[in-house]
Design goal:
Distance between the termini: 33 Å
Order of helices and strands: HHHHHHHHHHHHH
Helix content: over 70%
Radius of gyration: 24 Å
CATH class of the largest domain: Mainly Alpha
InterPro entries: TPR-like_helical_dom_sf, TPR_rpt, Ycf3
Number of helices: 13
Structural class: mainly alpha
Protein name: Tetratricopeptide repeata protein
Shape: elongated
Keywords: Repeat, TPR repeat
TPR repeats: 39-72, 73-106, 122-155, 156-189, 190-223
Length: 239
């Protein structure tokens, strides 16, 4: 998921849940414009439009939500209410039964999901993994990170966090493998260099650890964490 769209979704949903329809509307509209295949966002945007007196526009988004998910009862009901407000009473009476009578789509496979949906689900796994790790439950945290990467394998921050948890479990070789995978596709990703150095240091490979830290310093000369690690390496202290 693109960071900009993720931001719009998060902020828009927050305003929506707080009942601030006017504030939520532009953020949700940005998401719909970039990713038309997300029924829940169309429904939320429809509610915002309906609540701010724009029933005709709201109906279009409710219709799209039902097209994407014929079993979406809430969106069908919202569309029925919207049609009633517009004086389209026959359509209002028929829309719910019509939506309910449609055959549901066959369940999608992960590979068929829209990229935005995959990214959203991956971030939910990522957040849950961090929650497990915060509670000291590293094995479930690793499982959540792997689930996130199955959906979005290019998320460098997720793979780097997976490597950190593997390192904390003592699986140094697996951690190094994940970090090198990150750097294979993101050769300028400083956090991966930092954790690569820490992992090598934890293995007792002190001189080797300096190499990724020096690379990180060349990319971000003002990075204080990297500076501190290199100073500690020179004094043989532990990071």
């Amino acid at each position: 998921m693109e960071p900009k769209i993720r931001h719009h979704f998060t902020v828009g949903r927050g305003h929506y849940q707080a009942g601030d329809w006017s504030a939520a509307r532009p953020h949700l509209a940005e998401v719909c414009e970039s990713h038309d295949g997300f029924a829940d966002v169309h429904n939320m945007l429809g509610v915002c439009l309906q609540q701010t007196g724009r029933a005709e526009e709201a109906a279009a988004h409710f219709r799209r939500a039902v097209e994407l998910n014929p079993a979406y009862t809430e969106a069908a009901l919202n569309l029925s209410v919207c049609y009633s407000e517009l004086g389209r009473y026959d359509e209002a009476r028929s829309i719910y039964s019509e939506a309910a009578s449609r055959q549901p789509k066959q369940p999608k496979q992960k590979g068929e999901l829209d990229a935005f949906v995959r990214g959203k689900l991956a971030n939910l796994h990522f957040e849950l993994g961090q929650a497990y790790a915060s509670a000291g439950l590293l094995e479930p945290a690793v499982k959540q990170m792997r689930a996130a990467l199955e959906l979005s394998p290019t998320f460098a921050d997720v793979r780097t966090k997976l490597a950190v948890y593997l390192r904390d479990l003592g699986r140094f070789d697996k951690a190094l493998e994940e970090l090198r995978t990150v750097l294979g596709t993101r050769p300028n990703y400083v956090p991966a260099y930092v954790h690569l150095g820490v992992t090598l240091w934890r293995q007792g490979r002190r001189e080797e650890a300096k190499i990724p830290w020096q690379r990180a310093q060349s990319l971000e000369p003002d990075n204080r964490i990297v500076q501190a690690y290199l100073r500690m390496a020179d004094t043989n202290a532990a990071p």
